[in-house]
Amino acid sequence: MNRLWRECIRGYVGKLALAIVFMAIMAVATSLSAWLMKPVVNEIFIAKDRDMLWLIGGAIFATFVTKGVSQYVQATLMAHVGQSIVADMQKRLYRHLTDLDIGFFHNNATGTLVSRFTVDVGAMRVAVSHAITVFGKDLLSLIGLVSVMFIQDWELAIIAFTVFPIAIIPIAKIGRRMRKVTVNVQVEMGQFMTALEQTFQGIRVVKSYGMEDYERGRIGVLVDSLYRLYFKSMKTRALSSPIMETLGGVAVTSVIIYGGHRVIENQTDPGGFFSFIMALLLAYEPLKRLANLNTTVQEGLAGAQRTFEALDHMNPITELENASDLDVKTGDVKFKDVFFSYPKADDIKGDQGEALKNISLHIGAGKTVALVGASGAGKSTIMNLLPRFYDIQSGSISIDGQNIADVTFKSLRDSMALVSQEIMLFDDTVRNNIAYGKLDASNDDIEHAAKHAAAHDFILQLPDGYDTMVGEHGVRLSGGQRQRLAIARAMLKNSPILLLDEATSALDTESERRVQAALNELMKDRTTLVIAHRLSTVVKADLIYVMDGGRVVEQGTHDELLAQSGIYANLYQLQFASEEH
Predict the structure, then answer these.
(1) What is the per-residue pLDDT for 561?
(2) What gap in Å lies between CA 435 and CA 211, rounded to an integer?
(3) Whether 187 contacts 226, CB under 8 Å
(4) CATH 3.40.30.10 for the 2-312 domain, yes or no
(5) Are 271 and 42 in contact (CB under 8 A)?
(6) In 356-394, which positions are buried (b, 16+ CB within 10 angstroms) versus exposed (e)?
(7) What is the pTM of this model?
(8) b/e per residue 187-211 (b: at least 16 CB within 10 A)
(9) Which of 45-49, 92-96, 184-188 has the highest mean pLDDT?
(10) Are 41 and 271 in contact (CB under 8 A)?
(11) Can you say whether the dihedral through the CA atoms of 219, 220, 223, 225 is positive or negative?
């Protein structure tokens, strides 16, 4: 709770104080409406004083208008504070998560992370705004109404409030149980959102394999689990109601019996008694809300706990405080004695051994170097290490003699353009997807890049040309079209170092020929690291490293490797034999 106040609420103390002022005005107006019942009964209904009729009537009207205006102002202020806290926390959480290493995203499902922004932060908002409103408005109203009750009849007031302390222990237990249930709900909601996302994104696979019933069953299990948790949550929350209703019934019944007896015996006047009864009845609702406040606060604290857990996750890959900007003059890249192992949770193969073992390789300035080998040999790992998506355990990686661990992330990654086999397009226009990473690019520059990526012609055939929305992950485009947009994006970035991970894998023969020609032009005087399973795309590379089991086992040009009759030669023969058939 202290951290929630310190990091989220304290910055809005001014607006909260103003809201509390209007809550106090509401409390006074509410108390005054109960106090006015005494002259209403005594002066109007019993004494039948016409002059007092208009005076008291006007006072009651003014009281309700004041209460209504104050209610609007405080509600508006509290809505502003609540939504501002949500917005601040969501921006802070997003900024923090996008600064984390890629391993964090490999280990946390997207739906679970999204639920932090929606379910958890939303619970915090409700807890903050509701708690302050209830604690401010209802507590002040309760104080005012209790004051009226003691003024009218202190003996009845003591009788009325003797029973309510009994509720403190069970209400506290309900709150603790509510927090535990809420944490389970939030965890389950994250799993549910992840399952939905996976199903919707993979709907083509689901349908092609006829797995609709299986997915319905899987989602059904999660929905049923959420139902049980929510139902348990509602039952737990509802427990406070019968407790307060029973105690309220005892209090009101006791007051009516004892107070009615005193009125009959002429020990008190009817106006004072009715004023007391009205104050008691008006006090009952804020008292119930205060009793239920603990459950709402516990829900919010559960959300805050999960949110702060995400914020407390530290990035193992950090930038030095005095990091300098990378100065790329030629783009000469060297890996020297590099050892690397993926974090335990990242290793989906279950092999906790080293992914790279004593790797030393040289990507000469302006040269094209290819990495080949079987899946899992370590090729993609090398490409992930160069922009520091992961950090090595030992050894060094340098660009133009500058250790990449000593330079800023921005300058390092600005020096590279990546085209991966995992094509990522955003639900935006074709134009904005190409310009991603270079938002100030002119339309001519964008079209120039598209032409060299063999994308311009098909873009013009789209419904809105360069302004066509591509859909989530580019779903409205074919695989080859998505790949060409990704290549156009890299071309527009025009970085001195190119990272091509199966960059032409999704292209048909004609498109591949045109794109490869454009890539060859782009590679001139640039350092290029290529990963390729199709060896035909790397036969002209200046140097080829053959990898196996996290080691470099062969190196040389295409002709030199064929002459060695080793792993590369076998891969080449197998691949071209399969293509001939």
Answers:
(1) 94
(2) 38
(3) no
(4) no
(5) yes
(6) beebebebebbbbbbbbbeeebbbbbbbbbbbbebebee
(7) 0.75
(8) bbbbbbbbbeebbeeeeeebeeeee
(9) 92-96
(10) yes
(11) negative
Please give the full DSSP string across 522-546, using - where no structure is assigned.
Answer: HHTTSEEEEE-SSGGGSTT-SEEEE
Helix ranges, 347-471 (H): 379-385, 409-414, 430-434, 443-452, 456-460
What is the spatial distance between Cα 133 and Cα 493, in angstroms, rounded to a whole number? 52
pLDDT digits (tens, 9 = 90+) for 65-105: 998 999 899 888 888 888 888 889 989 999 998 888 888 88
pLDDT band for position 351 (cuts 50, 70, 90): very low
Q: 212-234: per-residue pLDDT in tens?
A: 888 889 889 988 988 888 888 77
pLDDT of 364 above 70: yes
CA 59 to chain centroid, in Å, comes to 51
Taking only Cα atoms into account, the Rg of the chain, rounded to an integer number of angstroms, comes to 35
- Which residues are within 8 A (CB) of 357 and not within 5 positions of it... i.e. 6 or more apart? 339, 549, 550, 551
pLDDT greater than 70 at residue 168: no
Q: In percent, how much of the chain has pLDDT > 90?
A: 28
In sequence order, the 6+-apart residues with CB closer than 8 A to the CB of 526 are: 331, 366, 495, 496, 497, 498
Q: How far apart are CA 581 and CA 571, in angstroms?
A: 16
Q: What CATH code would you report for 319-415+532-581?
A: 3.40.50.300
Q: Where are the domains of the chain?
A: 2-312, 319-415+532-581
How far apart are the C-alpha atoms of 93 and 307, rounded to whole Å?
8
Helices 240-264 and 168-201: angle between axes, nearest 10 degrees? 140
CA distances from 187 to 21, 190, 195, 312 (A): 38, 5, 13, 18
CA distance 372 to 536: 11
Interaxial angle between packed helices 270-312 and 121-133, expressed in degrees from 0 to 180 and rounded to the nearest 10: 150
Give the span between the Cα atoms of 470 and 28, in whole angstroms. 59
Q: Which residues, listed in sequence order, are joined to residue 403 by a DSSP beta bridge?
A: 398
Q: Which helix (H) or strand (E) holds 361?
A: strand 356-363
All residues at 6 or more sequence positions from 252 whose CB lies less than 8 Å from its CB, including other chains: 160, 280, 281, 284
Model confidence at 506: pLDDT above 70: no
Please compute, for residue 20, the number of CA atoms within 13 A of its CA located in the half-sphere on the CB side. 12
pLDDT in tens, 426-473: 889 999 999 998 888 999 999 999 988 888 999 999 999 999 999 887
